[in-house]
Amino acid sequence: MPELPEVETVRRGLAPAMEGARVDKVEVRHRGLRWPIARDFEKRVEGKTVDGLGRRAKYLTADLSSGDVLVMHLGMSGSFRIGKDAKPGVYYHEKSKSTAHDHVVFHMSNGQTITYNDPRRFGSMKLVPRSNIDQEPLLRGLGPEPLGNAFDAAMLAQACAGKKTSLKAALLDQRVVAGLGNIYVCEALFRARLSPKRRASTIADRAGRPNERAEVLVTAVKAVLNDAIKAGGSSLRDHRRTDGSLGDFQHTFLVYDREGKPCPAGCKGTVKRIVQAGRSTFYCPSCQK
Ligand code: ZN
């Protein structure tokens, strides 16, 4: 499942091919995604210019000149590839080898072709009028962007104050902060030297004000995301950049997927794997307190 750095990497790859260009033609080859692509999709997209390509949490948002926003999610295995030639036989990467899984092809006025491929079909493409975007169920209720100014120690402490859940669960809660998933939460908690099992409320005082831990944690979350974006995201299973190349961040994981390895902080501890809410957590019990 792509997390924020992977989606941001895709956005940065797509932007030069999409922004400022008109969609001359869109081919919907298979409507079956997580929700079927609407019957009026082609009519609402063709002839419209992409004024900007943004991201909210793990969603890509293309602002169309019609006033619609095309909200796209990569699901489990979705990828975009860019090529002037979308003919079968031109493959940019392993995961979209089978053009049978090409769902949507955008033919842009600048000559670019952008193909959305999704073997497992958990992705989505939905048009939402900009005027209704605040009511859109996919986006409503999401917490602040972790790389934005609204995400700071005061905000995070407020959101965690009184919470009996673990710090890990709090950071995975999309209402607290949007776009974080298992990998980057594990890595951020390690960088902050905070235990994933610690009660979320312990980063705030009784009045909900942030303590030192909240400051350190926010800094760690932002740093790990910025480092991951710089590396083009992490390629575990399906993530590829839009040119088909792999992200590199998986090579610099400090604890994620490193069970049994010596703690990279040099504390003489060993990285341990535990299961929290059905998902693996990797951490160093010796130095993450
Ligand atoms: Zn350690």
Overview of the molecule:
It is globular and about 60 Å long. The strands form 3 sheets. Strands 1-6-7-5 form a 4-stranded antiparallel beta sheet. A 4-stranded antiparallel beta sheet has the order 2-3-4-8. Strands 9-10 form a two-stranded antiparallel ribbon. By secondary structure, it is of the alpha+beta class. Strand 9 (272-276) and strand 10 form a beta hairpin. The two termini are 28 Å apart. Residues 86-95 have low confidence and may be disordered. Helix 1 (4-18) crosses helix 6 (212-230), helix 3 packs across helix 6 (212-230) and helix 5 (182-192) crosses helix 6 (212-230). It has 6 helices and 10 strands, in the order H-E-H-E-E-E-E-E-E-E-H-H-H-H-E-E. The structure holds zinc ion. Zinc ion binds next to loops.
Structural class: alpha+beta
What shape does the CA trace take? globular
Strand order across the largest sheet: 1-6-7-5
* CATH arch. level architecture of the largest domain: Alpha-Beta Barrel
Strand content: 15-25%
Low-confidence stretches: 86-95
Distance between the termini: 28 Å
Helix content range: 10-25%
Helix-strand sequence: HEHEEEEEEEHHHHEE
Average pLDDT level: 91
CATH superfamily of the largest domain: MutM-like, N-terminal
Q: Would you state the CATH class of the largest domain?
A: Alpha Beta
Oligomer: single chain
Please provide the count of β strands. 10
**Biggest sheet: strands, sense, closure?**
4 strands, antiparallel
Counted up, domains total 2
Helix count?
6
Determine the CATH topology of the largest domain.
N-terminal domain of MutM-like DNA repair proteins
Instruction: Name the bound molecules.
Output: zinc ion
**Could you tell me the radius of gyration in angstroms?**
20 Å
